[in-house]
Amino acid sequence: SPCSSNPCKNGGNCTDSGSSFTCQCVKPYTGKTCETSPCTSNPCKNDGKCEVDGQGFKCNCTGPWKGKTCETGTPCSSNPCKNGGNCTTSGSSFTCQCMKPYTGKTCETSPCTSIPCKNGGKCKVDGQGFKCNCTGPWKGKTCETGPCTSNPCKNDGKCEVNGQGFKCNCTGPWRGKTCETDPCSSNPCQNGGTCRVDGQGFKCSCKSPFSGNLCEKGPCSSNPCQNGGNCTVDGKNFKCNCKSPFKGEKCEIGPCSSNPCKNGGTCSVDGQNFKCSCKKPFTGNMCEAGERYRIFIKFM
């Protein structure tokens, strides 16, 4: 039946009522299952223990508390002194004798009260002072020192903490880990030219006789020295250091320059001299032999 599970609490009498039940409660209990008593609303204050007493309740008070609901005490009853401070009653007020390093009306002030630890550091009282437990890359007495403290970013770069390290936000044409690199860092100007940053790029001021964006153009740029001669800049002009047997301003003069091979022979340099490749029927060092035969043919 519905009453088999003994639903009525606190001595209530259960009566079956169809498929349900009805509890007849013993005073002072009330409610569907006689679960409500004068102590249900927790009337006893300041840790007082409530017990049902006749038709009402009774509070068993702790410490200095007294009264119907343990509401009455001394100025020290609420333990106003924090952090181990000792409370003494002074008329209708109280006085706290604080343990060092705590101070204040209720010993609420400590070395950590001013929040001395920066950058998310956790402060704890340590003896007469405080100690900061720093997080991440921060260190120092108050966690004030970090990757950006030494101002690692050059040339007006802005430093920000990045994980355990730092990151530089560079300005203008500057780049690199610490904004140390600019368009002139690679020394792009040749032949003694002076580089200067120009906007996001660079510009070369060239020494005479050089020119060009990189001062790469000079008297030797057109390769004026022939026959393997080595070109060097000489003042505002060039000078050719010729390989033997060549000579001349541009090493253009050699054993073949005088066209020594006759009768259509081809001249080629051979060591310090020349060599002729003759057309038939001519022979000889300069293809000079066979001229009589040519004249004979002509007059035939």
From TrEMBL:
Task: Tell me yes or no: is Protein transport among this UniProt entry's keywords.
Answer: no
**Where on the tree of life does the source sit, at the highest rank?**
Eukaryota
Q: Does the keyword Ligase apply?
A: no
Q: List the disulfide bonds.
A: C25-C34, C61-C70, C98-C107, C134-C143, C206-C215, C278-C287
- List, for all copies, the residue spans of the domain called EGF-like: 1-35, 36-71, 72-108, 109-144, 180-216, 217-249, 252-288
Alphabetical list of Pfam families matching this protein = EGF
* InterPro entries named in the record: EGF, EGF-like_Ca-bd_dom, EGF-type_Asp/Asn_hydroxyl_site, Notch_Cell-Fate_Det
- Give the Gene Ontology MF terms in alphabetical order: calcium ion binding
Keyword list, A-Z: Disulfide bond, EGF-like domain, Glycoprotein, Repeat, Signal
Q: What is this protein called?
A: Neurogenic locus notch 1
